[in-house]
Design a protein that fits this description.
By secondary structure, the protein is an alpha+beta fold. It folds into 5 domains: about 20-55 and about 60-130, no CATH class; about 145-290, Copper type II, ascorbate-dependent monooxygenase, N-terminal domain (Jelly Rolls); about 295-440, Jelly Rolls (Sandwich), CATH 2.60.120.230; about 455-535; about 540-590, no CATH class. It is built from 14 helices and 27 strands. The strands form 8 sheets. Strands 1, 4, 8, 9, 12 and 13 form a 6-stranded mixed sheet that branches. β24 (about 435) and β25 form a beta hairpin. The longest helix is centred in the C-terminal third of the chain and has 15 residues, at about 575-590. It is globular. The protein starts with a helix and ends with a helix. Bound molecules: 2-acetamido-2-deoxy-beta-D-glucopyranose (9 copies). One 2-acetamido-2-deoxy-beta-D-glucopyranose binds next to α3 and α4. It comes from Potamilus streckersoni. InterPro entries: Cu2_ascorb_mOase-like_C, Cu2_ascorb_mOase_N, Cu2_ascorb_mOase_N_sf, Cu2_monoox_C, DBH-like, PHM/PNGase_F_dom_sf, S-S_Temptin. Keywords: Disulfide bond, Glycoprotein, Signal.
Length: about 600
């Protein structure tokens, strides 16, 4: 995996603004994902209110919710507040009325509004929806709008045909205003075709290398915009009216900041309608009155995922470890917002801040829904000191899947990231603090990782002397044909003492070797690994029986097993547990 800003920084969250009504959203199942019957693809945020954005008069569901003591009771769940023949529980994905606060609802797709009889305009609903005003549009009202120096411009696509595909990511690089030094301070959606637009992001592009992406031309992209455009500086998703950035900070654009940005629009066209067109975009508000701090984006989480199919609950975690957070910031930073990012099977996410080994707070903690993810904004920015840790937890439900999901951009693969907006922006090459398995991205930048001279080890054109020695040892004693030679067992034991053939870094090197482009080098490396693995079963059996016979064996914290005294290196079996499980797999396969 390439550890470079432009390749992996660009996966981004979608935004839903945290306000008072979100307290109530959390008290009903799927409260943050209730569809707006007036607008395909949009969310009715104030579920119990007549205004889709919350506040003001309550709708029939809101009245019942209030009567039930603002709680999700079995009565309320079994009631059909809007009289459309479906119970509130059925509409909100809790048809058995068993949901409790914090639970993941039994169903989280195919939801409908519990307070509006639908389909709107049907005979069955006549007279039941008189209060519904599909014309309500709430306007964003940022303080900067009242400042005569505030400027704006709209970045949008030219009228572009929407493919008859369920999901399309379309991008366009554009020029930011360059006639001054500005802070980007607010954004507002400018939606042309409400039926298809699901989210819009703007990525700041770094200059320097000549970009392969031309300006003002649309291209089909991934969840990534490409072309050195990696830091997300603006986000909008269905249901949101825009965003005023915290008053102390803004993203720097213009002569001293980003000069180019890429617009990315996620179109959903579930019915695969042909002939649709769209020219949506975002209006960007910017000001020459610079604010005290530049904003930056910090990404944390786990880059090494393996989510087996058919599971109710799979949990993955990733840290921004202390040593790494100390490296990426010189002084405290202040976090103004945070959100988890997963793909379709993500159901729950949290981010914990940890100081001196103790959790100081949750930055996020709640159910996750790809179609309406929550971003948490903090009224008082949260201080993060160098050395503080951030732990991201991601929970997936993979019952609908038949294949393992890994970390990748593809929407049917997964991610486990969190995005934090903070100030002041730090001057770092990679604005992130993540883990690949147990290894931090800070460590991966270094020459030596977990004792392994990682970068030099498997240089295909110029392998390190260590690698040559190990290659020689294994080549002389082992064969890559699936048989275990007696002499190979000893050679493997010896070889696996080397840090590059132990633990996570060893797996990482294997993954890298699969990506070698030189076919000769690739075959050589794969043969080496096949030979190295040829005695796994025999070694596992040996360790397992040794371990059973010898009660003096103990397991160190790093997972190595030491038998007969810690000084003796002869009986260290770092792979005991791994090997033992391989052994059992083999045994199982034979039964
Ligand atoms: C259930 O619906 C009926 C009829 O709309 C209403 O009178 C009653 O208060 C509701 N009960 C609850 C618990 O919401
Ligand atoms: C917008 O906010 C300003 C204060 O910042 C207030 O005076 C004005 O009435 C608001 N406008 C609307 C339409 O709410
Ligand atoms: C955006 O800027 C233009 C001038 O370029 C101005 O006429 C317009 O009122 C501004 N729009 C908003 C919504 O502030
Ligand atoms: C739409 O889907 C078809 C078939 O899956 C695919 O070949 C094509 O590239 C897609 N088009 C776009 C613009 O994504
Ligand atoms: C891109 O489009 C904008 C707005 O239409 C225009 O002002 C600008 O000159 C164009 N830039 C290039 C390089 O075509
Ligand atoms: C999240 O919040 C819930 C409810 O407040 C709590 O029980 C849980 O322990 C928290 N943390 C995680 C990681 O679930
Ligand atoms: C920390 O300060 C040094 C020296 O001023 C600077 O070179 C480095 O880029 C800074 N690091 C960060 C993360 O800002
Ligand atoms: C591999 O070695 C060659 C020759 O010494 C060197 O030019 C190249 O940069 C090395 N590659 C890596 C990835 O270290
Ligand atoms: C078992 O323990 C004894 C000493 O307690 C040691 O001499 C011997 O090597 C150990 N055997 C194995 C297979 O670890």
């Amino acid at each position: 995996m390439q550890i470079q800003t432009n390749t992996w920084v660009s996966f981004w969250l979608l935004i839903q603004w945290t306000q008072a009504y979100q307290i109530f959203q959390a008290r009903i199942p799927n409260g943050n994902a209730v569809p707006d019957p007036c607008n395909a693809n949009q969310i009715w945020i104030g579920v119990g209110h007549q205004n889709p954005l919350g506040g003001g008069n309550r709708n029939p569901f809101g009245l019942d919710f209030d009567a039930a003591g603002k709680k999700w009771t079995v009565d309320l769940c079994q009631n059909d507040s809007d009289g459309d023949g479906k119970t509130n529980g059925e509409e909100l994905g809790d048809k058995n009325c068993v949901w409790k606060i914090g639970d993941v609802p039994s169903q989280y797709i195919g939801l409908s509004h519990p307070g509006i009889c639908d389909p709107l305009g049907s005979v069955a609903c006549s007279g039941k929806n008189e209060w519904v005003d599909c014309g309500i549009k709430m306007k964003l009202n940022c303080s900067v709008f009242h400042d005569p120096e505030t400027l704006n411009f709209t970045a949008h696509l030219p009228k572009t045909e929407v493919p008859a595909n369920e999901t399309t990511y379309i991008c366009m690089k554009f020029e930011l205003p360059m006639d001054g030094d500005f802070h980007l301070v607010a954004i507002e959606p400018v939606i042309d075709n409400e039926y298809v637009v699901h989210h819009i992001l703007v990525f700041g592009c770094s200059e320097g290398e000549i970009s392969s992406v031309p300006v003002n031309q649309t291209y089909v992209c991934g969840m990534n915009a490409g072309g050195q455009c990696s830091e997300v500086i603006a986000t909008w998703t269905v249901g949101a009216i825009g965003r005023c950035y915290p008053t102390l900070t803004g993203f720097r654009i213009g002569s001293k900041g980003y000069r180019h940005a890429a617009l990315q629009i996620h179109w959903t066209n579930p019915e695969r309608v042909t002939g649709l067109k769209d020219s949506s975009g975002l209006r960007l508000y910017y000001t020459p009155k610079l604010r005290p701090y530049d904003a930056g984006v910090l990404i944390t989480g786990q880059l090494d995922l393996l989510i087996p199919p058919g599971e109710m609950k799979v949990t993955m975690t990733g840290m921004c470890p202390s040593a790494c957070s100390r490296e990426i910031m010189n002084d405290s930073i202040y976090i103004t917002s945070a959100g988890n990012h997963m793909h379709y099977i993500g159901i729950y996410g949290s981010v914990e801040q940890i100081r001196d080994g103790k959790r100081t707070r949750y930055l996020t903690n709640g159910t996750f829904n790809y179609n309406s993810p929550t971003i948490h904004e903090y009224e008082t920015a949260i201080e993060m000191r160098p050395g503080d840790e951030l732990k991201t937890t991601c929970v997936y439900r993979s019952i609908s899947r038949s294949k393992t999901a890994i970390f990748a951009e593809d929407t049917y693969q997964e991610m486990c990231l969190s995005f934090l907006i903070y100030y002041p922006k730090q001057n770092v090459k990679f604005p992130a603090c993540l883990q690949w398995s147990s290894i931090s991205t800070c460590e991966l930048q270094k020459e030596i990782v977990q004792g392994c001279p990682y970068k030099a080890f498997f240089n295909a054109t110029n392998p390190s002397p260590d690698a040559m020695k190990l290659f020689g040892l294994i080549k002389q004693n082992c064969v890559p044909d699936g048989t275990c030679r007696k002499e190979c067992k000893e050679a493997v034991k010896q070889a696996r003492i080397h840090p590059c053939l132990k633990g996570d870094i060893s797996r990482r090197l294997r993954i890298e070797s699969l990506k070698l482009t030189d076919p000769v080098a690739k075959v050589r490396v794969l043969e080496f690994y096949a030979a190295l693995d040829s005695c796994d079963v025999e070694l596992a059996m040996e360790s397992y029986s040794d371990n059973r016979i010898n009660s003096t064996c103990s397991k160190n914290i790093d997972g190595t097993v030491v038998c007969g005294g810690a000084q003796s290196t002869k009986f260290i079996f770092p792979f005991l547990f791994l090997s033992a499980s391989i052994f059992f797999l083999h045994v199982k396969a034979c039964m």
